[in-house]
Write a structure and sequence with these properties.
With about 625 residues, the protein is an alpha+beta fold. It has 12 helices and 27 strands. The protein has helices at about 20-25, 30-45, 70-85, 90-105, 130-135, 155-160, 245-260, 280-285, 295-305, 370-380, 395-420, 430-435, and strands spanning about 5-10, 55-65, 105-115, 165-175, 180-185, 200-205, 230-240, 265-270, 270-275, 310-315, 320-330, 340-345, 350-355, 360-370, 520, 525-530, 530-535, 540-545, 550-555, 560-570, 575-580, 580-585, 590, 595, 600-605, 610-615, 625-630. The protein has a 9-stranded mixed sheet with strand order 1-6-5-4-7-3-2-8-9, sandwiched between helices. Strands 17, 20, 21, 24, 25 and 27 form a 6-stranded antiparallel sheet that branches. Strands 10-11-14-12-13 form a 5-stranded mixed sheet, sandwiched between helices. The radius of gyration is 32 Å and the shape is elongated. The N and C termini lie far apart (about 90 Å).
């Protein structure tokens, strides 16, 4: 029966489907931003020829009677709500009630998304793996290869999440002169009319029982007509929150600013045109961009447009070159610094950011062009294309190989940043001037190189965290109220203290002879000391020579202690902790005493800032941990 209508497919007595499927949940956290990102990457992937891709987001309203087959959608929603009520599924029932209310409004808000200078959705009449078929009938399927922006086959669900009743129409006019459209409504399983079979929870507005598309274009927007190749997506019941335009502008700029700058992409959001010519005015208009992303977007634009930016090409083994950009900022411009390297993969789409590249105010960018490295990294991207995840590789040998490649890329970026920020090999390190903004040991941002670095200006500190001191200063306690102590051996009753040579711990201190752990000795006249970790202090470290393991540790003491020990540990990529061997040190310019890789027997004064320079057995960048103990 060839008739334009909605058909909700039976499940052949197989799996039932709920409203909140995994593919929909992926994009619910940030639906509008996810929509902008997915649409742009899909249109860029379908680019036809050398002309830039143009994408238009246009909102409009229609009467509910103008929605094709609206009554049938509402009827199916009511059936779903009744079925979920019988199943006592309160969550889906309440959500369906909201959807029924939205589809019943007299005026329906919609969003049209149209692209130009693209191929359109090829293969309209085919039931093979063509772009049209995979978009409308595929799930987790994709035929994108090489350097395509998206390849996971689930990005299309961002459009359904942006609809208040999960209904989307696709219409296309392809470069092969095909025309066609189809509607899709994603609900949940319910009982079929005149049958004990359930539905699959999805309906198609098509031409026949096979749910084939209708071989013509549709224009749900009354003021729009397509006469060039491309695709139109209509999101019915668009969730047009007050800030939706701002969210799309922000996500487009944050994710595709390079594509716009290189004149590969133009985006129109109602009356706002974002292209290479308008980019400077939009980037610096804070009213158009979400505050959280303003510095990141501005710094990306500066990296691409400022002639004073450091630029360099770096070869990553045999996998290809990457383009690196770096900009350092003065004290007055430090609010623009992200201290991150934006990682952009051809076709000029931001994937993630490498954080903590330097403690000096700066921003960086890495563009991975169309090469083998691009292909390798694309294969380990998550479905949202916002990170590279090694766990997606099942084969351990291949995972180790890709990990080594990615580590080489990150190391090359950090070395480039540090070498360019090192002003002169004849200048001395000014760590005291950097103390207030050196990276915290609780992050993985303590990076440096083997050249001497001069910090000429202290950056603006926006917010300085105050050290917090626990009620019981200087002692970390276990669940029984006992202080946690390092392992110093054991002893049997009557043998006396386990401390070597009768001293407390370091080179000084009065000896005591007792088998008690703390308190007074047997005669009640000598304190017995306990080794306890000092808490509440915020340690920062700075790598001054990666190859030779030279670090600087900076902190302000909260205590008056006469006999302290300092130990360092480092973490590998798997999060395993190892003791770091300290071989030499100076404390505020004075030589310190080392025993078994630990700094021993030094003094602390409350309120005094300490700079401890250490030589270690490390030969690469590591996340480090610092602990100071005292005899208490």
């Amino acid at each position: 029966m060839n008739e334009k209508m909605w058909r909700f497919v039976g499940n052949n007595y197989a799996t039932e489907t709920g409203l909140d499927t995994a593919d929909m949940e992926t994009f619910k956290k940030d639906p509008i931003s996810s929509l902008a990102r997915e649409i742009c990457q899909n249109s860029i992937d379908a680019r036809a020829g050398k002309d830039k891709v143009i994408i238009e987001f246009h909102s409009f309203e229609i009467n509910k009677s103008d929605i094709p087959g609206r009554d049938r959608i509402e009827k199916e929603m009511i059936s779903c709500e009744e079925y979920q009520n019988r199943r006592k599924n309160t969550k889906d029932k309440e959500q369906l009630e909201r959807m029924i209310k939205e589809v019943g409004r007299d005026r329906i808000q919609c969003l049209r998304i149209s692209d130009y200078n693209t191929t359109g959705l090829l293969g309209v009449v085919s039931r093979e793996e063509t772009p049209f078929y995979l978009l409308t009938k595929g799930s987790g399927l994709s035929n994108k290869i090489g350097t395509s922006g998206g390849s996971k086959g689930i990005g299309k669900y961002a459009s359904f999440v942006a609809s208040s009743f999960n209904t989307v129409f696709y219409s296309t006019y392809t470069k092969e002169q095909e025309q066609g459209y189809i509607g899709i409504c994603k609900l949940c399983s319910t009982t079929m009319e005149n049958s004990d079979q359930k539905t699959q929870g999805i309906g198609y507005y098509g031409i026949d029982e096979k749910n084939n598309p209708i071989l013509e274009q549709i224009s749900i927007d009354p003021n729009f007509e397509r006469n060039t190749f491309g695709t139109d997506i209509y999101i019915l019941g668009f969730k047009n929150e007050e800030t939706w335009e701002k969210e799309i502008v922000t996500k487009v700029l944050d994710s595709f600013l390079s594509a716009i700058y290189y004149d590969e992409l133009e985006v129109i959001i109602n009356d706002k045109v974002i292209n290479k010519q308008s980019l400077p005015n939009i980037v610096y208009n804070d009213e158009l961009i979400t505050k959280k992303f303003q510095s990141s977007i501005k710094s990306q634009y500066i990296l691409l447009s400022d002639p004073s930016v450091y630029k360099e090409e770096i070869q990553i083994s045999e996998y290809g070159k990457v383009e690196l950009y770096l900009k350092s900022f003065s004290k007055d411009e430090s609010y623009l610094a992200t201290n991150e390297c934006v990682m952009i993969r051809y076709p000029y789409m931001k994937i993630t950011s490498l954080r903590g590249i330097s403690s000096i105010p700066c921003s960086a960018m890495c563009i991975i062009p169309n090469n083998q490295l691009n292909k390798i990294l694309r294969e380990i991207e998550n479905p949202q294309h916002t990170d590279w995840e090694l766990r997606r590789i099942d084969d351990s040998a291949k995972r180790a190989e890709v990990n080594a490649i990615y580590r080489e890329l990150k190391t090359s970026i950090v070395d480039f940043v540090q070498s360019k920020l090192a002003l002169s090999e004849n200048d001395e390190i000014d760590v005291e001037g950097a103390g207030d903004y050196l990276p915290s040991v609780e992050s993985d941002s303590g990076l440096g190189n083997n050249e001497e670095i001069t910090i000429t200006e202290q950056p603006k500190v926006v917010k300085k965290l105050k050290n917090k001191v626990k009620d019981k200063i200087g002692v970390y306690e276990d669940s029984e109220g006992m202080a946690l102590q390092p392992d110093i051996g054991d002893h049997e009753e009557g043998e006396g203290s386990p401390v070597p040579e009768g001293n407390n711990s370091g080179r000084t201190g009065e000896p005591h002879d007792s088998d008690q752990e703390e308190g007074l000795d047997g005669e009640g006249n000598k304190d017995i000391m306990k080794i306890a970790q000092l808490s509440g202090m915020n340690y920062r470290y700075f790598v001054t020579d990666k190859k030779n393991g030279k670090y600087v540790i900076s902190f302000t003491s909260l205590y008056d202690e006469e006999n302290c020990d300092l130990e360092m540990s480092h973490l590998d990529d798997g999060g395993n902790k190892y003791k770091t061997q300290i071989t030499n040190c100076s404390i505020n310019g004075s030589e310190g005493y080392i025993e078994n890789g630990i700094i021993k027997g030094f003094e602390l004064k409350n309120g005094i800032k300490y700079k401890i320079e250490v030589d270690t057995d490390l030969d690469d960048y590591y996340a480090c941990e610092v602990k100071i103990y005292a005899n208490r």
